[in-house]
Structures are given as C-alpha cells and as structure tokens.
Amino acid sequence: MLDRDLAAMEAMGKIEEDVQAVKLLNEKLGKAPLWQPGPVLVKQAARALELIGRLQARMDRRLVVTLIGPSGAGKSTLLNALAGVDDLSPTGTRRPTTQSLVVLSNDPAAARQLLGPMDDNLIQLRSSPKAELLTHVVLVDTPDTDSTERERHLPLIEQAVEHSDLLICVFDAQNPKRRDHADFMAPIVRRFHGASLVAVVNQCDRLSPEELSGVVGPDFDAYLQEAWDVRPEAVLMVSARRHLQHPRWDPQAGPRHDLDQFDQLRRLVFETFNRAGFGPDRRLANARQIKTYLFEQVDRAVARDRASLEQAVERITVVEQEALRQAVTSLRREDLRMVLGVNARLYQSLAQRWMGPVGWLVAIWSRIILFGTGLAALIRFGNPLRQIWGLISSWRHYRESSAAIGSLDDQTRIDQALQTFQKVWWTHWPDIAELLVQGRFDPEVRRVNVDQDKAVGDLVRGLWRDSLDTEIERSAASLSHFLLQILFNLPSLALLAYIGWLTASHFWAGTYLSTDFFLHALLTLAAVLLLSFFIYQLCLRLAVSRDRIQRRAFQAMEQRVDDSPLLAGREMTDQVARVLALARK
Predict the structure, then answer these.
(1) DSSP string, 114-131
(2) Residue 407 — very low, low, confident or very high, per pLDDT cuts 50/70/90?
(3) Which of 52, 132, 479, 526 has its CA 20 to 30 A from that of 58?
C-alpha cells in the first residue's frame, strides 16, 4: 500500500471526528430556536459539513494549489514562471487577462476529476516539461477578484477555492494593502489552516530593497495577521517576471535589485507540496480549520450575549422564587376548618402509633372527631327515633370532618395562590424579556405567557401537602414517643395489675370478692384512665397549639421554595442554558 494511501486512511478517521463534532454542534443549535443567531449558525454549520465532505471525497487525490489575487498582481505571470512556459496562462495589459481557470497538471484526467462537474469552457488544461514533476499537485490560476467582469468571475473563483487545498494569495508590491482585496479574501482564507496559505508579494523588483525589507515587508505581515485572523505559512517577496524565459523588460524600467524569494516559492510547490502524504495532511488541517472557524463564530456569538443572558436567568430564578414565596404566603389565612382538619389528621396519625389503654382512648377520640358523638346512639338500646337521629348526626358530623380534612387541599386556596404567583411574575417579566432581547432572543418573548399554570399549581399543592404531612408526622412521632406511652399507660396498667393480683390471691385463698369491689375497681380504673388521657390531652395542647403545625408547615414550605425547580421560566432558562453551553470551555 502506498504511503499516500496510508496517510489518506489516517486522515479520513480524524476528519470523521470533526464531522461528528460539527453535527453535534448543529443539533445543539437547533435546540435553542428563540436565539436569533442560531439559524445563521445552523446554515454555517451545514456549509462547514459540505466543505469538509468535499475534503473527505478527495482525500486520496492530488493536492490542488490555487493562485488568487486582484487585477494586475501578476498571478498568470507567476504561474507561467513556475511552469517555465511564458504563455501557459494569458498575460498582458488588457483586463481581465484570465477569463477562465488555467490548470497546470501532468495528468489532465486527474485534474478534471479534482475540479468536479464544471463547464469545460471554464477550464483550460495546460502542461509543460516542469508539469511532469507535479506527480501529487495540480496548479490552478484564477480570474481577477476585482475585474470588470467580477460578477461573472466570482462564482468561478468560489468553485475553484472550494476544490482547493492550498492558496497562494498574490498581492501587488506597489499596493499590497488594498482594502477591497483584503476584505474579499478574509472569509476565504478563514476556511484554510495557516499552513495552507502562502502570501506572495509580486513585482517586488519595482521597489527599493530598503523599502521592501524595512517598511513593506513588516508592515504587510502585521496587516495580514490583523485582516485575516490567521498567520500564513510564508510571506514571500518575488519577481515572477524575472523568471520568465523572455521577461521583455521596459528599457526604462528594469529590475531595481536582486531581492527575490521565487526559488523558495518554487521549492514549496515542487518539493514540499509535491511530496506523497502532504495532500491528506493539508486536507485534514483545512478540515480542522473549518471546524475551528465555525466554533469560533459560535464562541463570539455566545460571548456577545452571555452577560445579558446570564443576568436574565438570574432574574428569572429570583422572580420565580419570590412569586412562589408570595403564593405560599397567600395560603396563610385564618380558617377554622383548616384547624379542625389538621386536628383530625393528627389524631388519626396518633391512633396508628399509640398502644395500651391510652392508645384505645386516642383511637376512640379520633373516631369521635371524625363521626361525632351521634355514633354512640346507634349502639344504644331504646327509642329507634334516637338511633335514627344518631345516625343522621354522625353522617352530618362526618361530612363536616371530611370537609375540614379536605380544606387542607382546597383547590380554591391553590387557585388564589396561583393568581398571586402570576401577578408577581407578570409584574417583573417585562424587565426579564428586555434582558433576553438584549441577548438576541426573539422579541416575541416580550409577550407575557405563563404556560405552566397547572404545573405551578401542582407545585404549590405538592409543597403544601408534603410540608403539612411531614409536620403532622413529625408532631405525631414526638407525641407518641415510647417513654410517653409508658408514662401515660403505666397508671392504668399498674392499677389493672393490682386489681388482677387481688382477685387472683383471694380466689386461690378460697374467698370471693364482692360485686361492689369489682364495680369500684372498674370505676377507679376508668377514672385513672380518663385522668391519664386528660393529662395527655393537656400536654398535647401545650405542645401543639391551635395553629403551630400550620405555621411550621408554612415555614418548611418557604425553606423549600429555593430548592424548587423553575416552572414558569423553565423554557427560557433551558434555552439560555443551551445557548451558553454552546461556547467551548
């Protein structure tokens, strides 16, 4: 396998990495549709993929070196000097002299394949004895970039550049810093790696050596770095006409000195550029340059908008948290039904935790709170009307208790909290929208639209429910501590044990206790049990005042607001985050 083939295979693998990086960037750009630079950068990414794809397609083919420059710079003369044939490419004073692409190659078929599907009338294939040395290179001369037929020539120049691997940019030594030419070349050279660019200042024989080395050379080098944002591989001062077979100098205007770097340019073309494996390396470098240029464009766009977008995200976060706090605050209102609901929920939780005689009373009390005392009428013998009335009373009390428990999750309260949230959000949104517009988001973001009403309502409801449940369970756990259960159950259990011991001892002694003993024992046990339950109730009331659980639940909600996910501004913050993530670290 040839070295060129091996180099091409290695370069193909590396270029594929660049292709995937550009595709990933393109995909990320599509996820921020409100950012106005996005569509432009998407088109640039598509263009970058197209250019890199062309580099991939000709990875194993010859290197294309293209000469490009303005009218009068001497491109055609330079190509003729390199080819060793004076009339290979047309020269003269008539402008434009070059009307089509002039291609120098030792293999016309290879040259035709490299330049793609172009009109044969637009390509002139040339050869020369020196062209036989170009086994890995094709040289292309292009029309002037600023000729009178510029509109017709520019598409031709663009096609030639798209199929090029190296550019030899030719400038006139007498006016190398022409702004129009530099501006025309700037977007073109950014597609190429610096090592794929050579700047040639032609016709240097018309200036003095001191002016060339002391002024023109350094000044032009600095100028190129500023205008192009990329440093070319070499900046050479040449006199192409000197190397023609018949220079035909004007007797009154011959060369003023011998300063000439043409031989260095010729070595670059026929030795450095013409060696096997150099083509894949240059195409890989150019692919990397295209990718780098695209990413730099994205970095610049993001850097321009970063301050405004970061400030907008910060404001969205602060405003939404403030809106949630005020929504939570709006839930705070004196509501007797809420107090009854919390009380019922607390006793239900206590009933599940308590054991022993006091636990039985806690369970009974939780049922009484839920159904009322009318439930007792159902199990009493006597007047059927009283039993029916007891049933009705229990049903009514159950409805009231259920309504009280349901008030803890009242939709009306949630709706009021949501209205408070929206009011705060709408008040601050214009300022946020202006920051987004400054960050080049679509001006349509100025339109107030909270499309997450249900989500915000669900969040407020969830915060309230979780905070209240947590506080009820925490209070129930502290009021059902194992030591408390022992303390309040101990009197009843001790008295019950004592009564049982007396009964058993008298039974084994053969004496029987009277009915009055058992009646008094039962009354005493009931009194002790009720007293223990009453004292426990007093302790419970002291520990859990009328609205302490609600207040603690609201405090817990306010603390959890800062950790809550963004909802109303989530779409905007997500898109801003995607935009900021586009920039390379």
Answers:
(1) HH-S--GGGEEEE--GGG
(2) very low
(3) 132
Distance CA 305, CA 576 (A): 10
- Residue-wise pLDDT for 433-446, tens only, equals 899 999 999 998 88
Residue 123 and residue 143 in contact, taking contact as beta carbons nearer than 8 Å: no
Per the rule left: phi > 0, alpha: psi between -120 and 50, beta: everything else, 447 is beta
Q: Which helix (H) or strand (E) holds 169?
A: strand 166-172
Question: How do residues 258-306 score in pLDDT, each as one tens digit?
Answer: 788 889 988 888 888 888 777 788 888 888 888 988 999 999 999 999 9
Listed in order, strand segments (DSSP E) in 364-519 are none
Provide the 3-class DSSP secondary structure of residue 500: helix
Instruction: Classify 395 as helix, strand or coil.
Output: helix
* 136 close to 279: Cβ distance less than 8 angstroms: yes
Nearest to 168 by CA among 273, 285, 284, 90: 273
Give strand pairing partners of 383: none
Query: What is the rounded CA–CA span in Å between residue 74 and residue 185?
Result: 17
pTM of the predicted protein model: 0.64
Beta bridge partner(s), residue 68: 169
What does the DSSP 8-state code read for residue 274? T
> What residue spans of 510-547 are helical by DSSP H?
515-543
> CA–CA separation, 413 vs 460, rounded Å?
10
- The token duo for 114 is 């490299």
| Cα-trace Rg, the chain | 45
User: Does residue 578 carry a pLDDT above 60?
Assistant: yes
Burial class (CB in 10 A: 0-12, 13-18, 19+), 459: buried
Enumerate the H helices of 134-249 as residue ranges: 150-162, 179-189, 209-211, 217-228
Could you tell me which residues come within 8 angstroms of residue 338 by beta carbon, excluding any fewer than 6 positions away?
404, 407, 408, 550
Provide the CA 524 distance to its chain's centre, in angstroms: 75
Is 116 a residue whose pLDDT tops 90? no
Cα–Cα distance measured from residue 5 to residue 1, given in angstroms and rounded to the nearest whole number: 7
Buried b / exposed e over 500-526, threshold 16 CB at 10 Å, is: eeeeeeeeeeeeeeeeeeeeebeeebe
